[in-house]
Amino acid sequence: ARLNRDGSVDGGFVTGAGFNNAVTALSIQADGRIVAAGSFTVANDMPRVRIARLNPTGELDESFDPEDGPDSTVRRLLVQEDGKVLLRGPIAAVNQGADTSVIARLTTTGAVDPSFAFYGGPVAASSATVTPLVLTDDGSVLAAMLILRAENREFSGMVRLVPATAATIITQPVAQAVAAGATATFGVVAS
Q1: End-to-end CA gap in the chain
Q2: pLDDT tens-place string over residues 142-161
Q3: How far apart are CA 43 and CA 58, in angstroms?
Q4: Which of 105, 143, 170, 174 is deepest in the core (most CB within 10 A)?
Q5: What strand order describes the sheet that includes 23-28?
Q6: What percent of the chain is modeled with pLDDT above 70?
Q7: Which residues pair with 76 in a beta bridge?
Q8: Cα–Cα distance measured from residue 156 to residue 147, given in angstroms and rounded to the nearest whole number
Q9: Parallel, antiparallel or unpaired: strands 148-150 and 168-172
Q10: 3-state DSSP call for residue 8?
Q11: How far apart are CA 34 and CA 77, in angstroms?
Q12: What's the rounded Cα separation, in Å, for the pair 67 and 96?
């Protein structure tokens, strides 16, 4: 259901049968469409595994089809300005075998975005801790308290995934910064 500003139910928002299980994350796109994620497998009487997009009036947007969807409950999602959707979960795979390991990105049609890989592989984490995802003005994605693995190396603290042709990972654990393998130490001055 969608509520009006006065708290009454918006009769123009019709979701049909709704979802068959929990919705744990919502995001509204710039065009008013709503991306919902969680532990459901059906949305508005249609198969939609753990992620679906609704039109502004509440009907299922059938142009967004994640096929078999994530293999586990989606805890967080973030819609980028270009309409691509970032998922955070404890997700090991999306669409039966497209290995994504904890953070995944879907295209505007719901397919796994193959360009979302770091150091030539998926973004993996050694912890199922679910943290918020934040999109910065330059298109980077911030994830806090994440232990990230790429190329058999671990990055921890605040992780910043920077959009680039060759992916860059910048982390900020206590008083250190790591950028694509280079390490620098700096001091923090509080004012």
Answers
A1: 46
A2: 766 555 555 556 656 666 66
A3: 11
A4: 143
A5: 23-28, 34-38, 51-54
A6: 59
A7: 88
A8: 5
A9: unpaired
A10: coil
A11: 11
A12: 9
